Amino acid sequence: MFTERSALVDDARPMRGYGVAVTPGRDGPLVFAAGYGEPNRLYARNDGRFSDTACGIVADGTRHGMGVCAADLDADGCEEVYVHNCARGVDGGDPDLLLSRLEADRYRWTDVFAREVNADRIDVRAGRSVAALDRLGTGRYGVAVSGYAAPLAFYELGDDGEVTDMAEAVGLEVDGGCRSLLAVPYRSREGDLFAGVEGGPNRLFSNRDGHYARTDGGEETVAAPPAATAPTTTGGEGRVTLALDRSEATALLRADRGRVLVLSRGTRREYELTALLRRAGKRFRRVSVVAGGPLDGHTIGEAEVREAYDVAVLAARHESWTIAPDGSQSLSAGDDLFVVGSRDALDRFAEVAA
After folding, report:
1. pTM of this prediction?
2. Is CATH 3.40.980.10 what the domain over 269-353 is classified as, yes or no?
3. How far is CA 143 from CA 33, 84, 131, 194, 235, in A?
4. What Cα–Cα distance (Å) separates residue 309 from each residue in 303, 313, 341?
5. 10-residue mean pLDDT series, the chain (354 residues)
6. Which CATH number is associated with domain 6-218+244-254?
7. Which segments of the chain belong to CATH 2.130.10.10?
8. First to last CA, the chain
């Protein structure tokens, strides 16, 4: 049963807006209301009531919000807020906002699209809806953005803060524009996507180990595999095999900056290890070794990390990164660890290590 609780909102003046998202805050939920041609509002709990705390880039009354969602795009434990803006017609006119908190316990925000690395990634389209998807089941989400007379986009955030449209790579392709998007737990545990298509049949994409396939009765578009020019391997997560002449190696490695997307050609479930662990109730966390703590100055084996804290160390950075370190791995204050375990175990370990 719904209850009228509007009296809890300090600033309840009418506003023209097209979406609301709720995300965890320092003292309770934060409520983001996207304004259309007027400032956005960010309501935070204050003495049992909700007050508008939006200012600066968060408020930004110059844009026209059409949709908003909140999800953790960088797996740091704090959700980002994606605001889709659309001012006019089919060309959009307003760039989108991807708001990220600078500190977990404060309300200072930055626009990820404004970073130099994303200078050519700002999304300007006449979109209609947004939806968050955790396609690998790791707690790291991407955002699908539907467009009017524009292809469906699916943005993921890299560790360097770079935003990349992964729609084509993961199979989220729609001919023509979409009016609506909805993340649904239809066939997979990690979330499927329903797309309401403009002037055509709707689409239902099923998540199959991080890649999406149509399950709405239509024909799935399958690209013809490229002709093999060298022996191939089944690859796997984090591995890539190259075959080339020795004379070409210098040219291959000369790039100042390159982007490589490796899609596994195998179908075995171990290629999606993170998804399997999450389905088993495990979660991932990055922690730093605190000075003077029980890990500082010891090896992983000496600290008995697995036995004492019920977590496993997947990677450790002590001068350089080591994947799947053994018990002889030394730890010092400031070292970074990626660990996996239950939520309770990770919380206990973080209190000691970080």
Report:
1. 0.61
2. no
3. 18, 11, 6, 13, 27
4. 10, 11, 9
5. 87 88 88 93 90 91 90 91 78 81 78 87 73 90 85 88 89 82 75 86 89 73 49 49 59 54 47 62 85 89 90 88 89 89 88 78
6. 2.130.10.10
7. 6-218+244-254
8. 43
